[in-house]
Amino acid sequence: AQHLLNQISYTPQKFMQMALLGLIALFFFLTGKRIFVQMRISLLAYTIIAFSLLSILFSPNSSLALRYLISVSVVSIPVFLYYRYYGPEALYNTLVTFFTAVVVLNIIYVFVFPQYAIMNGVHAGSWRGLFVHKNGAGSFFAVISIIFFQRWWFESKRRDIKQLSLFLCCLLMVIMSKSI
User: Fold this and answer.
1) Cα–Cα distance for residue pair 52/68, rounded to 1 Å
2) Residue 164 CB: number of other CB atoms within 10 A?
3) What value does the mean pLDDT of the chain take?
């Protein structure tokens, strides 16, 4: 039922973010000033960072705004570092591999554990897969379906059945999540 969403614990997510923050700090400690010299951040990026920090001061709940900024930073910094070290193509291929795993695992989860992967109560019958809510699942699969469609239509010239299958699985998850 819907009231059970209030009982969800975000403790594992917090521990993962703290561990990731520790790894980022260790990375910066071990690389020293060298990493800052190699990274050339544009004026636009500095402006965005400045406005983000400034927005905390004007937020009605500064501590919550700071927590969200730290959460976004902890997730964004490793992606940025990966991009800087390995380039955009490697990042793209890694993300596609990750998205492929997410799609496959969610489809398997829906069919193996439907009692957990399909919502009940107000949203009975809506697929959520490994996500907390159907809307999160629907949004995620709608966005990544574009990647798989693009790879099938343009990169493989409509010959790669794997990309078509992943696109159709995403489409199925969007439709069955009923979050259109």
Assistant:
1) 11
2) 17
3) 86
- Kindly provide the b/e burial profile for residues 8-30, where b requires at least 16 CB atoms within 10 angstroms of the residue's own CB: eeeeeeeeebeeeeeeeeeeeee
pLDDT in tens, 78-132: 888 888 888 999 999 999 999 999 999 999 999 999 998 898 888 899 999 999 8
Contact 150, 99 (CB under 8 A): no
Q: Give Cα 8 to chain centroid, integer Å.
A: 19
CA 33 to chain centre: 30
Token representation of residue 67: 């927590």
Indicate the residue type of 141. Answer: F
Distance of alpha carbon 138 from alpha carbon 111, whole angstroms: 17
List residues bridging with 118 in a β-sheet.
Answer: 127
